[in-house]
Amino acid sequence: MNEQSPSASVIEARNLSLTFQTSDGPVHALKDVTLTIGKGEFVSFIGPSGCGKTTFLRVMADLEKPTAGTITVNGVSPEQARRSRAYGYVFQAAGLYPWRTIGGNIRLPLEIMGYSKAEQAERVRRTLEMVELSGFEKKFPWQLSGGMQQRASIARALAFDADILLMDEPFGALDEIVRDHLNEQLLELWGRTGKTIGFVTHSIPEAVYLSTRIVVMSPRPGRITDVIESTLPRERPLDIRDTPEFIEIAHRVREGLRAGHGDDV
Ligand SMILES: Nc1ncnc2c1ncn2[C@@H]1O[C@H](COP(=O)(O)OP(=O)(O)OP(=O)(O)O)[C@@H](O)[C@H]1O
């Protein structure tokens, strides 16, 4: 699956627009969005509520169709990419099936994809280990904390080892300590696997801590107002957030949000 050169672009959006027709008239969720995401990048999308972050991620995942412009994922249409299981998707809420165990939830896409029982078991074991949930395979979602459920949903997205991980505000509902820990774990996993990650967040520190690039968006219509390259090293202990370099990038993100009237972030 992973045959691209290191500089290959994974997501290529050109003049992408998406207008929803609603009973209150058209909603311009995305307008003229052009962005290339390279292989192995960690790109965060930040902006006020309703600026189209989720919509953009959903277009990449073929969960929404653009009304204008073009987008390719791994050089093919989002639909083809979805069919070839090019990405794992983590939703805002963990979205685990309550009647399935944690292992059963992670196994579900593998069952659908026709993996052998032995391969399913091995992948469930491996991904649970990755998100530090070994030993919880037979528990049901309600027996786990919110943070653990979110880790299980990340494990489910990782189970078929796609090169692309699309994450829609996965840690938004968690307290800060848990969130810090999951941020560290995610960064470690990204460093180890070289996956390309698209990540929606409302948190400036989270975006700056995780990303190689931060895409700032503004609403009505949803468009990109700034793209900030991170100058931080890839190795990032949590206390990097106290460094002048970090604070400088966070400042620029904040300015970008303000410029796009982002006062409700
Ligand atoms: N299926 C839909 N039908 C109609 N309008 C929609 C639909 N999905 C999203 N929208 C509208 O499109 C705009 C962008 O929504 P989107 O969820 O992408 O924003 P967001 O930046 O992810 O917001 P949040 O940070 O609150 O999750 C909003 O005005 C939203 O109401």
Automatic annotation (TrEMBL):
<protein>
    <submittedName>
        <fullName>ABC transporter ATP-binding protein</fullName>
    </submittedName>
</protein>
<comment type="similarity">
    <text>Belongs to the ABC transporter superfamily.</text>
</comment>
<dbReference type="Pfam" id="PF00005">
    <property type="entry name" value="ABC_tran"/>
</dbReference>
<keyword id="KW-0813">Transport</keyword>
<dbReference type="GO" id="GO:0016887">
    <property type="term" value="F:ATP hydrolysis activity"/>
</dbReference>
<dbReference type="InterPro" id="IPR027417">
    <property type="entry name" value="P-loop_NTPase"/>
</dbReference>
<keyword id="KW-0067">ATP-binding</keyword>
<dbReference type="InterPro" id="IPR050166">
    <property type="entry name" value="ABC_transporter_ATP-bind"/>
</dbReference>
<feature type="domain" description="ABC transporter">
    <location>
        <begin position="11"/>
        <end position="244"/>
    </location>
</feature>
<keyword id="KW-0547">Nucleotide-binding</keyword>
<dbReference type="InterPro" id="IPR003439">
    <property type="entry name" value="ABC_transporter-like_ATP-bd"/>
</dbReference>
<dbReference type="GO" id="GO:0005524">
    <property type="term" value="F:ATP binding"/>
</dbReference>
<dbReference type="InterPro" id="IPR017871">
    <property type="entry name" value="ABC_transporter-like_CS"/>
</dbReference>
<dbReference type="InterPro" id="IPR003593">
    <property type="entry name" value="AAA+_ATPase"/>
</dbReference>
